[in-house]
Fold this sequence. Notes:
Elements: H1 13-19, H2 29-38, H3 50-55, E1 63-67, H4 73-80, E2 84-89, H5 92-105, E3 110-113, E4 126-132, H6 143-151, E5 152-162, H7 168-174, H8 184-188, E6 195-204, E7 217-225
Parallel strand pairs: 1-2, 1-4, 2-3, 4-5
Antiparallel strand pairs: 5-7, 6-7
Amino acid sequence: MEHTNDTSPDHAHAEAASASRAPRDPGAEEEFWNARYADMAQLWSGHPNGTLLTEMQDLPAGRALDVGCGEGADALYLAEHGWRVTALDVSRVALDRAAAEADVRGVTVNWLHAGLVEAALPQASFDLVSAQYPALLRTDENVAERALLAAVAPNGVLLFVHHPAPTAEEAAAHGFHADDYVGPAQVATLLDDSWQIKVDETRPRHVATGAGSHHTHDVVLRARRLR
């Protein structure tokens, strides 16, 4: 999600959570994120994430789902490049900003005010499901992970990007518990022979300044659904 620019990226919910821990109760998430966005006129940079730009280069435009879209930079970029985009977020404040920017640019995005699980999306409906640094709560039943996988259409692509898990010292300093949130490893373990993993790696990232500049690497999972 992050761009080699000088400000924080769009929709890095988990990163924001590291500064002030998000609630485990899904019912309290909207209030938490609305407060985060309301603190600033613009929370993120407005630029699409670099990993998305890299990994979508060989994909024909189709139907895309942007999970945890924040202020909408990725969703708007995809829409401007011919994709039919559904973008969801739990924050009404963020979605209002995203919709206003879509109006300015003259593009159409289906904005959904919902979490991934609560959205009850039609299964196997998206050619690209992009989750860039999402704050998806983990459950014993892997509900969020299964919702991600279920949304991908046959021959579609799942792109899941996150920062490496923080050290114990980093987590303690920020009150952030990585085990509370879904990471690429939890998604990868659910991929059976109906999936082909195209990328599963930790790669360097280069952001000079901004709230995310201390992160030097990203964990990238890209998989294609075969059937």
